[in-house]
Write a structure and sequence with these properties.
Blueprint (H helix, E strand, L loop, with lengths): L1 E4 L6 H13 L4 E4 L9 H7 L9 E4 L2 E4 L1 H11 L10 H16 L2 H6 L9 H10 L1 H21 L10 H15 L6 H12 L1 H13 L10 E2 L6 E2 L2
Parallel strand pairs: 1-2
Antiparallel strand pairs: 1-3, 3-4, 5-6
Length: 233
């Protein structure tokens, strides 16, 4: 199988299936296509040759292209029933799917104000945004509610015990929370630490930090004109 992804520093959607497959030991070949959203860019040409959706991630398995992170996760669950993509218990599986679906379709304020940028220290920006953006505060409160409920029921270290689809879907949220310094209760800070230490996530972070490919349109808060990005005041 081949997983087509975008820049690891920025591509939150790509991160989800990648870290899940790594965590569960599902073998795949990685193919990175550098972000460039200008018309007729190499990005659109390469992705368009696989799927007309024109977005990453895309999983290609024996000629079949599966796009969208949630569809890829469901395909993996069917393709590898022995892997714990979802919880084994039906009720817990339904809860995990509900968490992923809510993440997949919601949290617009968190996404738009706190774009994923693993290489950056944006705590100053995060503090300012929390003061001015009520929608962001609401999204963060909902994250706290979801994580607290799941971890209380599972006992940790992950949302449903072992690392699974729900943790993979919230891994980019962990990146946002930690890079923007968003406040969490102590038990949830322990969860973010566990997620960052998970094998697949740890490897993704290392790769993202090694990229040093800073794209202006992905950098609303930093000056990327020089070799070392500097946080704007």
């Amino acid at each position: 199988m081949q997983l087509i992804i975008g820049n690891k520093n920025y591509s939150s959607w790509s991160m989800r299936p990648w870290v899940l497959m790594k965590a569960l030991g599902i073998a795949f070949q990685e193919r990175i296509v550098r972000f460039d959203f200008t018309p007729d860019s190499a990005f659109y040409r390469e992705i368009g040759a696989v799927t007309p959706a024109g977005k990453v991630p895309v999983l290609v398995d024996d000629g079949l292209a599966v796009w969208d992170s949630l569809a890829i996760v469901e395909y993996l669950a069917d393709r590898f029933p022995d892997k714990a993509v979802w919880p084994r218990d039906m009720r817990q599986r339904a809860r995990a799917r509900s968490l992923c679906a809510e993440m997949h379709s919601g949290f617009g304020q968190l996404r738009s104000h706190c774009m994923m940028n693993i290489d950056a220290d944006l705590a100053t920006v995060g503090a300012r945004l929390l003061q001015t953006e009520a929608g962001l505060r609401k999204d963060l409160a909902r994250v706290v509610e979801l994580w607290s409920d799941a971890l209380t029921q599972s006992g940790g270290p992950f949302l449903f015990g072992g690392f699974g689809a729900a943790d993979a879907f919230f891994a980019p949220v962990v990146m946002r929370v930690t890079r923007y310094g968003l406040p969490l209760p102590a038990p949830l800070k322990a969860y973010t630490t566990a997620v960052e230490a998970a094998p697949g996530v740890r490897e993704w972070i290392a790769d993202a930090l090694a990229e040093k490919d800073f794209l202006d349109f992905e950098e609303p808060y930093r000056d990327v004109s020089g070799p070392v990005p500097v946080l704007k005041p």
